[in-house]
Amino acid sequence: MKLNIPEQVAPSGDDFPTHPRKVKKWLEGLKQANMGDYTRLMFNGLQKLNRTTIDADHRFEILEILREPMRHIFNQLLKQFVNRTLPLPDKSLKIVTLNQTLLSEMAIGYKILIFEASNDIAKVDSKHLLIACERVLHYFSEMLLRYSQIYTEHPKGAWWDIHQVYAYAELKRIHQKTVKDSELKSGSTTVEEMYKQILLFSLAQPNAMRQSDADRVFKSMPDWAQRTAISIKPITSNSNRNYCVLLNSDLPPSCISNDEVPDNDNLRTISTAALVNY
Q1: Angle CA(58)–CA(51)–CA(17) in degrees, nearest 5?
Q2: What is the mean pLDDT of residues 52-77?
Q3: Contact 143, 158 (CB under 8 A)
Q4: What is the CA 187 to chain-centroid distance, rounded?
C-alpha cells in the first residue's frame, strides 16, 4: 500500500521524545501563554516525530496525547483567517498555511501507522489501526473545509490518501466499526461514515459557497452521510446520473451518466436516494 508519508530515520539524542511518558513531561514544560512559541515548539516536535522511526504503539499513544493541545492551537489559528475580509493579508495567509500544515502532520502521523501495518513493516494493534484510519479521514475532512473557506484547491495527493485509507479499512472489514472521537459532536463515528462525509462535502462544491455556508454544510455532513450508502456496483439511477469515485485515483468524486460508469473493481458509487427524499 502506498501513502504520502515522509522518510523515517533513527532517533538521535536531540530529537523529539519517543516515549509517551516523556512526551507528557515535555508538554507540561511548555507555556501556552506565548502562543507563538508554543505553536512553534509543537510544530517542530510533531514534524520530528513523523520523521523518526519509533515503536508503533508508542507512536499511536503520542499522537493521541498530542490531539488535545493541537486542537487548542487549531482553535486559536482559526480566529486569524475565518470570517476575515478576502483577500487575506500576508500574515493571515501564513497562518492558514501553518494551520493546514499542522493538520497534515497530524494525519501523517496516523498514516505512518497504516502504512507500516499494510506493508508488514510493523505490527500495529488492530484497535489502534481502526482509530488511525478514522483519525486520518477526520483531519483530511477539516483540511478540505479550510481550503474551501479560503477558496484554494486541495494539494496533490490528498484524494489518493483519502481513498487509500478507506479502501484499506474496507479490505480489513473495519470500515463500519464504531470509533470513539471526542472531537466530534456525536462522540463517535465509523471510517465509512467519515469517508462519506468527505465525499458529500466535495460534491456540494464548497469552493463556490460563502465561508459561513461552507461551515454550515460541513456541520450537516454527519446527518447527511447517514442517509447515503456506498455501493461496490453501479446503481441504476432514474436521473441517468451516478455519483462515483475511483479508489485508485487522486480525484474527488464526480457525477457521471449511467452509460459512462466504468467497469472497475476500484469503483464505488454513492447512493443519495434516501437523502434526496429526506
Answers
A1: 45
A2: 97
A3: yes
A4: 17
